[in-house]
Amino acid sequence: xxxxxxxxxxxxxxxxxxxxxxxxxxxxxxxxxxxxxxxxxxxxxxxxxxxxxxxxxxxxxxxxxxxxxxxxxxxxxxxxxxxxxxxxxxxxxxxxxxxxxxxxxxxxxxxxxxxxxxxxxxxxxxxxxxxxxxxxxxxxxxxxxxxxxxxxxxxxxxxxxxxxxxxxxxxxxxxxxxxx
Length: 180
Description:
By secondary structure, this protein is mainly alpha-helical. The chain has one domain. The chain is built from 9 helices and 4 strands. The strands form 2 sheets. A two-stranded antiparallel ribbon has the order 1-4. Helix 1 (3-15) crosses helix 4 and helix 2 runs antiparallel to helix 7. The protein starts with a helix and ends with a helix.
């Protein structure tokens, strides 16, 4: 991992130790929930939305959102479950998310904004983009407010940055997120 990527991962992981940053991010998640409830899109729990290739879309997130999800994974299998480079490769080969379990989202309550807003329901397509753009503007302001580096990238690539940082420095998954 290049030094710049390592610095970014450490900055995002460090931000997860700041209550105001976490509260700001969770406020955006709450706003997403409200916007979705107002629209009432259908979710059939088909898992299609988590299979990016099949659904014909890509999931983009910020490093801060990736850090949030990773820092809040259930600890019964360790904070990062089995998130590895090989696991990410397998997810890419399947065309989907490394956290998809059968047809369900394994990180439903801690998933990024774009996951929260995207629905396979075709009637949801027109408003999703507008809602997401407003939420991303709020996310950019949160980064600016707290001087957190802003990077927007494909979900699996952002997760890979964290995994590579963990492996690259010889540290554990927990150390990269400041959880040790």
